[in-house]
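[job 4471] stage=fold_predict status=RUNNING
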Amino acid sequence: MDFKSIKGTPHYLFDDLQEYKAFGNDDEVLSSWRKGNEGDWVYTDDGYICQILKKSQVSHPGYKTPRTMIRTVCGSFICEQKSHKILGDKGVVENIYTFSGNSKAKISYVKDRKMNNREFLFARYVASGENALAAYKKAYPMAKNENYIKKKSNFLLQKEEIRSMVKEEIQKILNEEGVTPEWIIGKYRDIVALSDSDSNKLRSLESLTKIAGLFDTEKKQEQLTVFQGFTPKQLEALQGGKETNMLAHAEKEEEE
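[job 4471] inference complete, writing C-alpha cells
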C-alpha cells in the first residue's frame, strides 16, 4: 500500500483486493478504469487498486472532439488513449496532474517501490522493540482485519529491504549504547575465563564459534569437535546423541 496526501486528505494505492478490504473498504472495484467515474475504485492495468479522483473532458490538438481524462494518485490518463496504462507497481507520482501514462513524455517523479513510507515506519517500530503485529498496526492504523494484519506483517518481515532496515536501526541503537562487536566478544571471552559454571562457559564458546563462522555448513568440510572435562555419564549421553554440550568446534575444508 502507498498513499499521497492531497490538501490534507490521504488517497491510497492498494496492492490488491485483500489489502483494499482489510482497510475497511466495501465498494465494488471496477475492472476497467477507462469506464470508471469520479469517486470509483478501479483496478490498474497491473492489478493494483486506486480511486478516480477526478474525471473531466479536455481538448486535444490532434482530435476534433474532447477527450476523457481521469486523475489518480498514479497520474492523469486519457481514457481513449490505448497507449496510456496505469501501472501501480511504479507507485504514486509527485505530480498527479501530468499524463504519466505516456512514457515518452513522462516528467513525473516515480517513487522507489522498494520501501514506501509506511514500510519504513514498520521497520522503525520493529527495530525499536515492537512485535510485528503491533508495528504493523502503528504503521497502518486503518487496517482492521486481524488475519490480514498477521499475514501482511509476516510478509513484510521477509522482505530484504525491511530486514536490512531493521538491522541498520538496531545497529544505530547498539552503537549509541556502546555495544560493538568487539565489546560483545570481549564479554563472551570474560565469561569463558572467569565463570565457575561449565554450562556458561560452553554457551559462550558456542556463541564465539558461531561468530567466528565455524558453523558454516555451505561447503564440504571435515569437522573436529573437542570435548574436555566430561564425566563418563556425559560422554555416554554424547554417544547417544542426547544433551550434547560443545566446548569447542573447529572445521577445515576438505580437498575435493
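[job 4471] summary: The longest strand covers residues 9-14.
[job 4471] exit 0
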